[in-house]
Amino acid sequence: MGFGPATSVYLAKKGFKVYGGVSSSKEEELLQTTAAAQGVEVTWIPMNLADSVSIGLAVDSIVANERRLDALVNNAGLLLRGFFEDLDEDEIQNLFNVNLFATMSATRAVLPVMREAGKGRIIVISSVAGRLGTSTGSIYSATRFAQEGFAESLYQEVLPFGIEVVLIEPGITNTPTWTVERSAGRRVRNSDSPYFKWYLESEQQFGKSLEQSRIKPVDIAQVVHRAIVARRPRLRYVVGRKARFALFLRRYLPGEAFNRIFLHEVSRRLGSIDSNE
Amino acid sequence: MTHTRTEIDPDVAENFSSKSVLITGCSTGIGLEAAVALAERGHRVYASMRNLDKRHQLEEEVRRRNVSLRILRIDITQPATIRQGIRQIIDETGSIYGIVNNAGLFLRGFFEDLSEDEIRELFETNLFGTMAVIREALPYMRSAGQGRIIIITSVAGYIGAPAGSAYSASRFAQEGFAESLHQELIPFGIHVTTVAPGITSTPDWTPNRYVARRATASESPYFAWFQNAQELFHQTMANSKNSPAEVAEILHRVLTARRPRLRYVLGKRARWVVRLRRYIPGELFTRVYFREVMKRITAKK
Q1: Does A84 sit within 8 Å of B135, measured CB to CB?
Q2: Phi, psi at B70, each rounded to 5°
Q3: pTM (2 decimals)?
Q4: I need a surface site. Which of A205, A211, B29, B135 has the fewest CB within 10 A?
């Protein structure tokens, strides 16, 4: 189960009236069966993430029904893996549309009603990749970093209205949508690519990290809940022990030591593949 | 994509001692100074700009300081002009050693006052344009087994600020992109570096040039705060001791160092803020600094 259904169901169990945005009938079905299995009700609402008008209409219909909107959880997000030169422009645009511009559109749509209410929570599910770049993650990290910069600025802009902006940064989590297959750029397995061997190696490493990951979608759901009910939520929540440890090292190792030791090491390991053969 | 032209012609390479460097956005400001200063230092500079009608200031400075460089037309949002520009550099010098991605837009306004079009336009230049230039140059750098890719970002790529949400998003995105790319290219001998100047006052800066259309409308709920934010911003700029020459100096260092850093932050104030944010534990920085900024901006006059 992905973060979306898990969070929707968790919040519904806690007594929230939850509207789950879905972009296909398959997603709608998944959301409904998940909710039914847990004995809660989640209202689904259609949304085309590439279209700000569709996002605005969805928000308008919620406000028309409920006359209020207490929290927005920007969860929709895609992964894209591949060395930069192997990624195509349309893949890059698509990732920015879903991860960044849809977040902005949904946020733009909810702000007036929250300002009027003098309160509200805008939650952005980013990623540890929003704090740390890695090879094969250049575009993904660019979208997540962008969300971080956006949210951090917005946090300041809307604080005087009683609206709190929160970033949640999960580490690598094993969810069905994040399978190795679905997230790869279409040219990455082209053996003509100068990065081909490195990509295969990085794919194995990524697969291993997914298997080893102990983070479950419900962990994210719990943090979202905390961010919604806390009197003064944090600006950032990092989820996952490994993610927290990496960010700790990057922060407190002096100068560029982290970069030299860890990031270069990863590249060197990939770079030595050719010579080992 | 064909890679046929990436081989370096040994004759061309031998006849030419210094290495070619492309700098984008050279009609004014940091780009202009960087182009001239790096030419002074002996780099073979290709200075590009979107609109060649604006080349006179650069030409004048080139004459005044008696250097030589080439001026190119590149609009980084138009791939054909990038391809043509880089092709010219390869034809004339046999290789491209460095690119300084300096061309960038600025956008100020509270988020609700920014239009989608304004945000897209910002990303087209700051992020997607930068990516397009790098994509075009990379095959030549890889085949040469060396190269320096520099992205001029901003302290706004480290810290968000009110009236700067989309701008910070674009600068943060550049930082995340660069950090990843850095790791991907190290095995090819190519170094990626970001240089973040603090707020820098450049001669033809005009206060309203980068303001979102709706930000100055008095019916905006943020109107009064935006006025305050602008005032603070212009004060900071007026007091800024950061100069384009300082940026050019660092660029030279990045181009010539054996192992350049991944990140450089310039300007005393900017360096301090970045350092505080990094080392102050937990969210103390957020609580104190961000809240203080907003207290000042929302203060009634």
Answers
A1: yes
A2: -105, 140
A3: 0.94
A4: A211
